[in-house]
Fold this sequence. Notes:
Helix 4 (89-99) packs across helix 5. Strand 10 (253-261) and strand 11 (267-270) form a beta hairpin. The protein has helices at residues 16-32, 47-55, 66-72, 89-99, 111-124, 147-158, 178-200, 238-242, 274-277, 333-337, and strands spanning 11-15, 36-37, 61-63, 79-82, 103-108, 128-133, 162-168, 207-210, 227-228, 253-261, 267-270, 291-293, 300-304, 309-312, 325-330, 342-347, 350-356. The model has no long low-confidence stretch (mean pLDDT 97). The chain is an alpha/beta fold. It binds pyridoxal-5'-phosphate. Pyridoxal-5'-phosphate (PLP) binds at residues 40, 43, 83, 170, 212-213, 229-232.
Amino acid sequence: MVKIADLETPALIVDLDIMERNLARVADYARQRNLRLRPHTKTHKTPAMGARQVALGAVGLTIAKVGEAEVMLGAGSPDLLIMYPVIGRSKLERLMRVARQTRLTVSMDSLEAARQLSDAASEAQVNVGVLAEIDVGMGRVGVAPGPELVELARGMLRLPALTFEGISFYPHIKMLDDEGNAQLKAVSAMIDCALAGLRREGIAVNIVTGGSTPTLFDSHRFAGMNEIRPGTYIYNDRSVVSVGACGWEDVAARMLVTVVSTAKKDHMIIDGGSKTFSSDRLPLAGEVTFGLIEEEPDALFHKMNEEHGYVDMSRAKGRFQVGDRLRVIPNHICAAVNLHERVYGYRGDTVEQVFVVEGRGKLQ
Ligand SMILES: Cc1ncc(COP(=O)(O)O)c(C=O)c1O
């Protein structure tokens, strides 16, 4: 049995007890609130984790890229949702190979994307579900939830080899404070408006999919939403804690690092930098830091090169020596996972299972 103490660093380690609790809690919540759960796999990018989500009752899995869909077939999910417009013939040909193996749905906000998908699906003699994406305030992708949506849905309904399933959106609400609660109400109003417009045209809507981790346990407050796609909840991270959406006890993932230099007074260098953690900052923090050092929360992990993490120890009580190993809670786990080949699942001090992050780097 490999012990955590034997792992080479930097290593991404996951407490399996916490992860399993996170997965079960959300599966239970979705079941109790009658919400379909289609977790976003961008966080773990690991078919074995997707399989666990399906085993706990997820109706399907969500992905962003065709390459991730190819990999996530390994999760044995009955259904894959691509929450990203897939553009271009060769990608669509690859996607149709996926569609031959499992039910596939794609979200998009243009008729051009729908036409390309319809052509590819017709040629491949498969049927693909489509969702019309609305913008509920993020300003990223999505049409306005009025006449533009109706026009998009009507166009999708006319195209061969596609089944119009409903609407999708990404409620990018960072935190459920007063502002976040007002945003939640505004999103609900937009969903209402979207559904009323489609209803007036006699367009049937089966799926209304949204949902993310910061608002996860308030998903039932979004009017009309019947499906959620949280991603980060499987591991959680410092960002999720910082916006009050989970506690430190719910954070499953840590970066195991080694102190490699203490040559400068009140400073130390750890063996993880931007190629280990990603450069993401905390969403609402003033001070720039790249992770929380569990053993010494007053140490400031304030700067990174690719392979060096700079830690300012001037406020810290203790001091570490070269060779000491520390656990760092990353700011943004999804971006960090994408940098790692393996995730080490542990219980207590023992590594129980090594997961290959098969979807890492699958950007095409
Ligand atoms: C379209 C879409 N759906 C769902 C999610 C999941 O969000 P979270 O990781 O906050 O749960 C994301 C995250 O980036 C997303 O882009």
